[in-house]
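Run log // design_07
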């Protein structure tokens, strides 16, 4: 036989038949999908995975406590663990951690524990239009699934709903094929807490301090939730306590019905099939917000649909006409009681406590709407360095030529942009977020802050932006960036401009006062020479101190007077700057929150001792009892002692005599 030709092609295998391909088709559970695509949930790498697990557990604890009407008191503990029987390595070298979050909330009923922690897309918030941190019912169960994939360990839960009820202990995992919980162990145990929940997840992670770390996340969470207390046990042994600065819960958000402007045709057709109303007019007025009975009749008339028609019979062309009539009707914006913004005073309290600065301000925009969903934008701004850091630097600096900088001054320092959505910090995907884009597009040079093209403003500044909404439009399931809607971008920009204007007023006042102070210093340099010259002209017969004081007073008046002193010393409050704080070594002025002041400004608490004059009422008592005190009123008659005024009349007589 001759050898086969080198270029001879092998026969191509026969293709699969339709029957063979049909046998390969099968359903994919959501658990299987996210097992292979865990990066969509924020578990890209070990460092980010550790933060994501902490975030989901803390968010659940905050939501549960607030919904139960309890001030949140949350404990977070990170512990490095070893593989198998190996001892735990140092935190910086560890690759496995146990994340434990304990809250003092209402607890979880026994029947719901396995599904909450071991089933994806299971929760109580997806179908409700009200502000909450969680939305999708994925977070905490996804963290448990990641721990199961990387360490093989189950999620451990302890929960108790009351002092008279036993605590329930569970160990659960996810059946990724069925997306159902697998209960490995359950029992009743003794627990020292009267109520609350404890969750422990062992997972593969990496602990590192700095930006986008668990440490930063806890600090930012304390800023956005000043009504909560956080105790953080870091894996390196350090313990940090973020005490609450506000002792009242925020106004609880209420659930609302969907707004007609926020639905699409397919959703309307589904609602028509699922409604319990018997008439189309009743469906419109009861299943939607801001649609009254009269408005419902008008919508039916515009759509050429009888108001008493059964909703299930509205299909096809009738449904399209009804949808177009809904969109064309002028309706009020949806109610905003479904939102719970942080509030200007609470933002000031959080920034003032966690960030050391010189000037603080906060802005809360009026409610707005995107796609029928109400939302509120809040902006906070902290500027400058703490007075302790300024002590070594002169307040009034010498003017420099263009391009020069003062020695020791970092001209390349960029402002820190802090992003929040429903009180949750967003620490990843900053450049993809509408918040960051709005900060870049704002012209900060108009407010006295330097800025390079396409970059955040430069200087010692922190800009905080918070979006509160019933449905935050995140760019992905990991909830790391806000989508760029025109309505959202507009509100963020307006809030940034208002905060920037207040900062500009503060900087211009300080700059003007510094300029006047330089002029005054120049005048004072020549006053001694002027006094000496005047003394020589008078032949040495001159009160030098009196003349110098008079000249100093003139120089003071010509250079802004007491206003310059107040601005330089910052003894005056921030007039014309609502919801703002100015911090100096002398004290704090402005809308100071009733909270524990940061280091370096203990004087802020001094005004609280103002009630000391209360002893004054004590002497008032004897005046009421002792009627002779009323006789003291004739002492007031002594006021007619104004009669000495005529005694002043002889003075002009003397002047006439001189003339």
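design_07 sequence
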């Amino acid at each position: 036989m001759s050898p086969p030709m080198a270029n001879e092609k092998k026969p191509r295998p026969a293709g699969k038949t339709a029957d063979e391909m049909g046998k390969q088709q099968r359903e994919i559970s959501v658990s299987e999908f996210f097992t292979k695509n865990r990066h969509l949930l924020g578990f890209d790498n070990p460092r980010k995975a550790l933060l994501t697990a902490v975030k989901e557990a803390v968010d659940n604890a905050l939501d549960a406590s607030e919904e139960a009407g309890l001030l949140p008191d949350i404990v977070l503990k990170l512990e490095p663990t070893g593989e198998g029987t190996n001892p735990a390595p140092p935190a910086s070298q560890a690759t496995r951690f146990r994340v434990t979050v304990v809250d003092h909330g209402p607890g979880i009923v026994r029947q719901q524990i396995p599904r909450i922690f071991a089933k994806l897309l299971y929760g109580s918030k997806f179908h409700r239009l009200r502000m909450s941190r969680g939305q999708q019912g994925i977070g905490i169960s996804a963290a448990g699934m990641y721990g199961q994939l990387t360490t093989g360990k189950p999620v451990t839960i302890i929960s108790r709903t009351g002092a008279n009820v036993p605590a329930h202990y569970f160990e659960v995992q996810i059946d990724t094929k069925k997306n159902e919980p697998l209960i490995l162990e359950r029992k009743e145990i003794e627990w020292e807490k009267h109520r609350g929940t404890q969750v422990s997840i062992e997972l593969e992670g990496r602990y590192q301090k700095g930006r986008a770390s668990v440490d930063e996340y806890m600090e930012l969470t304390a800023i956005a939730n000043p009504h909560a207390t956080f105790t953080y046990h870091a894996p390196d042994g350090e313990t940090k306590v973020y005490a609450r600065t506000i002792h009242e819960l925020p106004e609880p958000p209420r659930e609302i019905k969907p707004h007609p402007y926020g639905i699409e045709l397919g959703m309307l057709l589904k609602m028509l099939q699922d409604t319990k109303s018997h008439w189309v007019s009743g469906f419109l007025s009861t299943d939607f917000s801001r649609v009254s009975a009269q408005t419902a009749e008008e919508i039916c008339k515009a759509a050429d649909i009888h108001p008493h028609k059964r909703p299930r019979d509205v299909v096809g062309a009738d449904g399209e006409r009804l949808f177009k009539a809904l969109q064309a009707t002028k309706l009020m914006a949806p109610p905003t009681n479904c939102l719970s913004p942080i509030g200007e005073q609470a933002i000031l309290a959080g920034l003032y406590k966690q960030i050391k600065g010189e000037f603080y301000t906060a802005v809360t925009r009026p409610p707005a709407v995107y796609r029928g969903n109400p939302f509120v934008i809040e902006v906070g701004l902290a500027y400058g360095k703490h007075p302790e850091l300024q002590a070594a630097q002169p307040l009034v600096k010498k003017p420099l030529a263009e391009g020069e900088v003062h020695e020791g001054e970092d001209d390349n320092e960029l402002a820190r942009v802090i992003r929040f959505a429903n009180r949750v910090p967003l620490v990843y995907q900053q450049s993809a977020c509408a918040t960051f884009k709005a900060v870049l597009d704002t012209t900060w040079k108009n407010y006295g802050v330097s800025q390079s093209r396409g970059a955040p403003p430069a200087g010692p500044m922190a800009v905080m932006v918070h979006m509160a909404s019933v449905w935050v439009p995140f760019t992905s399931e990991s909830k790391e960036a806000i989508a760029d809607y025109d309505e959202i971008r507009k509100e963020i920009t307006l809030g940034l401009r208002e905060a920037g204007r207040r900062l500009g007023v503060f900087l211009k006042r300080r700059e003007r006062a510094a300029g006047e102070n330089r002029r005054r210093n120049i005048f004072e340099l020549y006053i001694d020479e002027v006094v000496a010259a005047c003394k020589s002209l008078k032949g040495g017969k001159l009160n030098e101190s009196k003349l110098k004081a008079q000249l100093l007073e003139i120089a003071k008046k010509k250079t802004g007077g007491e206003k310059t002193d107040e601005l330089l010393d910052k003894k005056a409050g921030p007039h014309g700057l609502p919801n703002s704080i100015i911090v100096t070594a002398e004290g704090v002025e402005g809308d100071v929150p009733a909270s524990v002041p940061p280091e370096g400004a203990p004087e802020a608490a001094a005004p609280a001792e103002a009630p000391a004059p209360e002893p004054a009422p004590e002497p008032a008592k004897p005046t009421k009892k002792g009627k002779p005190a009323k006789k003291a009123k004739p002492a007031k008659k002594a006021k007619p002692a104004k009669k000495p005024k005529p005694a002043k009349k002889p003075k002009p007589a003397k002047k006439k005599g001189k003339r």
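The domain at 260-328 is CATH 1.10.8.50 (Helicase, Ruva Protein; domain 3).
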